[in-house]
Amino acid sequence: MAYPSDPTRFTIAQAREALAAKAISATELAEAHIDAIAKAHALNAFITETPEHALSGAETSDARIAAGEARALEGIPLAIKDLFCTNGVRTTAGSRILDNFMPTYESTVSQNLWNAGAVMLGKTNLDEFAMGSSNETSYFGPVTNPWRARGKNEDLVPGGSSGGSATAVSAHLALGATGTDTGGSIRQPAAVTGIVGMKPTYGRCSRWGIVAFASSLDQAGPMTRTVEDAAILLKAMASHDPKDSTSVDVPVPDYEAGLNSGVKGLRVGIPSEYRIDQMPAEIEQLWQLGIYWLKTQGAEIVEVSLPHTKYALPAYYIVAPAEASSNLARYDGVRYGHRAAGTSDLIGLYERSRAEGFGREVKRRIMIGTYVLSAGYYDAYYLRAQKVRTLIAQDFKQAFQHCDVLLTPATPCAAFAIGSKTADPVSMYLNDVFTVTVNLAGLPAISVPAGLSHDGLPLGLQIIGKAFDEATVLKAGRALETAAEFKSTPQAWWRTP
Amino acid sequence: MSVDRETVRRIARLARLAVDEDQTAAMESELNALLAWVEQLQEVDVEGVAAMTSVVEQTLKMREDVVTDGGYPEDLMKNAPLSEDNFFVVPKVVE
Question: Which of A201, A216, A281 has the alpha carbon at shortest distance from A470?
Answer without folding.
Answer: A201
